[in-house]
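Usage

Read records sequentially. Each one opens with the input sequence:
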Amino acid sequence: MVAHVIRFVLQNLPALLFLLALLVAATRRHHGPAAERFLSWILLLPIGVTGLWAGAFHVFFPATAAKLIGWEVSPFQFEVGMSDLAIGATAFAAFWRDLNFKAAAVSAASIFLLGDAIGHVRQMLIAGNFAPGNAGVPFYMDIICPALAIALLIIAKQHRAA
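and closes with the structure output:
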């Protein structure tokens, strides 16, 4: 039973962190404009923490990460892991920084995550790879998080300009 719960949390961590970010941002109504508040929490949890988590898995547990994604272990996992760590650390730090820093974090994370999503689609179409780590939660979060972050950033910038 405990093993199933741990497996569920690990396989769905990005989505769980996404929901937690929305919940926390919604309950902290007196902590700044809504768009910037939601953006901050999206950067901290589903982009920041997930980036650190994914990076640690690729760097320190490459066999586990590869199996979840439906890959063979590859030396490129170290490079992907370091990219995940860089994006995660930047997004994590952006939580406490100004809107311009958040904009840079959104830009970097969006390029990486949307590129990841394209890679997932290619693997589904070319290799028939529908493993949970390729066609499941990570794929959807690679689209939802940057799309929402970009939209929130635009709204926050417009709110500041008004």
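Summary fields computed downstream for this record:
- The chain has a mean pLDDT of 95.
- Residues 99-127 form the longest helix (29 residues).
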